[in-house]
Inverse folding.
């Protein structure tokens, strides 16, 4: 490798170091807005938005968050247990209430949203969307449907999965890659497909 | 006015950094000819050894190539494209032929990454958080993936462990491929099923 190339590589590594410093600042800023346990980390691509009081977004200890956490101005907020993982570009948005247990693994590109986000009536949807753009998120869900999502301990959600409102995923369950989960998943069950259907049982 | 100047300076800096990054990425793989990386490209090679990622002439990678601490790595042929946000993760071996088009947000992962047994999974994930990726596959199901010449994978496709995608096959957007797809067929859906033959039959249809 030529000397010139070495200089380029060094410059690039310095740039990476700088990003590391930025990320540390990010961790400090996020933790002011939420309740966060010991040893939890937010990574480079992560983002945290809490539009309610601090205690409506709770992250336990030793969690690793690479994705986006978002709490609307209404609903019961978002609560994550200990030792859980949320991968890159995964989105968790709560307008009803989301609880994620301990040691839950959520891979990359997963979408977990407990609200329809919009009204079903077109005129009403248009009105409230314009209001949202102008004044930000409203203080109440209005006629937007929301329903709690619960993900119990030791569950594993593979990459590219979508989890819709009202779903409970049981203890130790597995959701296969790319699945769309529209109904409850019983404990110790593997589901896959669109819509997700049971494919296997796991011995508890 | 000030905003515009600042914007231009930031753009210039970004171009410079992306050029540096390109050189860095090229130094981490074996390039068989002239290869290019896009602005979103990343290489994560846990084995460090550049020969674990081989890329053919005139191939453009804008996704994420990751090699686990074990396995034979990734081989991509000539004139291929790997789109933004697409991930190719090899714990065993992933072989991609020539002239293969891989759209954005495609996942090609040749391992389950985790154990099916929940206690085993919880323990090994906790170990991974502390010590990084494991040194062997252990009881995690892992099997090589092969994607043959001229195949085309649309956006949001998932390809699971052990799958072979045939020559000239097309995989429709959002499909989850869990079984082999024969040459010159179109497969769609989750789980993916063949819905069309792409070769003209004897009647010329
Ligand atoms: C869910 C999963 C872990 C189960 O793995 P497994 O126990 O080895 O399952 P098998 O491969 O034996 O599949 C059993 C059946 O379910 C189907 N199936 C498996 N995963 C599927 C999926 N994601 N979508 C649709 N169908 C699926 C298979 O086609 C097979 O069907 P068949 O009985 O008709 O042949 C695995 O399929 C999966 O989704 N792996 C991806 C995980 C991953 O890559 N994670 C990386 C980031 S965390």
């Amino acid at each position: 490798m030529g000397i010139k190339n070495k200089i380029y590589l060094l410059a690039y590594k310095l740039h990476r170091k700088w990003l590391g410093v930025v990320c540390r600042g990010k961790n400090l800023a996020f933790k002011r807005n939420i309740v966060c346990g010991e040893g939890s980390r937010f990574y480079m691509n992560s983002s945290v938005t809490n539009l309610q009081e601090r205690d409506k977004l709770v992250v336990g200890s030793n969690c690793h968050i690479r994705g986006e956490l978002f709490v609307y101005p209404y609903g019961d907020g978002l609560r994550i247990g200990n030792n859980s993982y949320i991968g890159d570009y995964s989105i968790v948005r709560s307008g009803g209430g989301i609880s994620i247990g301990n040691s839950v693994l959520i891979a990359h590109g997963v979408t977990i949203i407990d609200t329809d986000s919009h009204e079903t009536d077109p005129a009403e949807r248009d009105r409230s969307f314009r209001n949202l753009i102008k004044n930000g998120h409203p203080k109440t869900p209005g006629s937007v449907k929301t329903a709690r999502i619960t993900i119990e301990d030791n569950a594993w959600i593979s990459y590219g999965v979508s989890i819709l409102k009202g779903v409970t995923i049981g203890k130790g369950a597995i959701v296969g890659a790319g699945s769309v989960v529209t109904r409850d998943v019983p404990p110790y069950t593997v589901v896959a497909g669109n819509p997700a259907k049971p494919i296997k049982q796991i011995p508890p | 006015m000030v905003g515009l100047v600042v914007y231009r300076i930031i753009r210039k800096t970004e171009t410079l950094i992306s050029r540096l990054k390109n050189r860095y990425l090229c130094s981490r793989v074996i390039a068989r000819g002239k290869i290019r990386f896009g602005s979103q490209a990343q290489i994560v090679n846990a084995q460090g050894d550049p020969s674990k990622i081989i890329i053919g002439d005139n191939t453009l990678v804008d996704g994420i190539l990751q090699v686990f601490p074990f396995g034979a790595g990734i081989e991509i042929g000539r004139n291929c494209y790997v789109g933004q946000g697409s991930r190719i993760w090899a714990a065993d071996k992933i072989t991609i032929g020539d002239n293969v088009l891989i759209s954005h947000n495609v996942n090609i992962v040749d391992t389950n990454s985790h154990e099916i047994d929940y206690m085993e999974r919880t323990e090994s994930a906790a170990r991974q958080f502390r010590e990084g990726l494991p040194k062997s596959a252990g009881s995690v199901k892992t099997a090589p993936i092969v994607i043959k010449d001229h195949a085309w994978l649309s956006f949001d496709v998932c390809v699971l462990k052990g799958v072979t995608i045939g020559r000239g096959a097309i995989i429709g957007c959002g499909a989850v491929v869990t079984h082999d797809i024969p040459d010159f067929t179109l497969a769609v859906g989750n789980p993916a099923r063949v819905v069309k033959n792409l070769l003209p039959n004897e009647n010329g249809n």
Observations:
- The longest helix of chain A spans residues 3-33.
- Chain A has a mean pLDDT of 94.
- Chain A has one domain: 3-201.
- The helical segments of chain A are 3-33, 122-135.
